[in-house]
Specification:
The complex is a heterodimer of chains A (110) and B (116). Chain A has 110 residues and is mostly beta strands. Chain A is 0% helix and 60% strand. Chain A is globular. The chains are: A mainly beta (110), B mainly beta (116).
């Protein structure tokens, strides 16, 4: 069964304290892995798509990486405005469905 | 500006009522989706549609219905058969990728449904 697991469930960081969020997946042929940011009461906002192991994408303080079993979202020198829930999703080859993890709630303290 | 709109933002339903949530996109995307989000759970797929006049059940379709009469619109009806409809509902769309499958999804702002 295709599955996505995110860890930790919640993370508190001091401003400037770098860390990483994990997204582990099992899927029968990965078509793509997607990262989203979701603020409370709002729809998810697209961040990155990764297609193959070894691929990396960067945007401001965020960097996403991908291996054959997991993806990491690295946050460098975070700021309070980076506080949000970060969601990971995968799409398996031959399907049009996306499977989401339960997310990591990030809180960055000033 | 291209994007996805959902209305209303907040919706209150009485027991036994059917209610319809609106979703419109002007991104010219082929596929549209409805998800339900509950606290502590991931997004769960209700229905999805790849083309006009065609749609498929997702993982939790019982008590819900949809239609896709236009490419831009994918309304969701929450029927009285849905026993626990209080949740945050999200609509999304995506564009088909040439080698099969779809690209990243873009989401609307969501509708929060509360049963009174």
């Amino acid at each position: 069964e295709d599955q996505v697991t995110q860890s930790p469930e919640a993370l508190r960081l001091q401003e400037g304290e770098s860390s990483s969020l994990n997204c582990s997946y099992t899927v029968s042929g990965l078509r793509g892995l997607f990262w989203y940011r979701q603020d409370p009461g709002k729809g998810p906002e697209f961040l990155f798509t990764l297609y193959s192991a070894g691929e990396e994408k960067e945007k401001e303080r965020l960097k996403a990486t991908l291996t054959k079993k997991e993806s990491f979202l690295h946050i460098t020198a975070p700021k309070p405005e980076d506080s949000a829930t970060y969601l990971c999703a995968v799409q398996a080859s031959g399907t049009y469905k996306y499977i989401f993890g339960t997310g990591t709630r990030l809180k960055v303290l000033a | 500006d291209g994007g996805i709109t959902q209305s209303p933002k907040y919706l209150f339903r009485k027991e036994g009522q059917n209610v319809t949530l609106s979703c419109e996109q002007n991104l010219n995307h082929d596929a549209m989706y409805w998800y339900r989000q509950d606290p502590g759970q991931g997004l769960r797929l209700i229905y999805y549609s790849q083309i006009v006049n065609d749609f498929q059940k997702g993982d939790i379709a019982e008590g819900y219905s949809v239609s896709r009469e236009k490419k831009e619109s994918f309304p969701l009806t929450v029927t009285s058969a849905q026993k626990n409809p209080t949740a945050f509902y999200l609509c999304a769309s995506s564009m088909e990728w040439g080698r099969g499958g779809y690209n990243e999804q873009f989401f609307g702002p969501g509708t929060r449904l509360t049963v009174l």
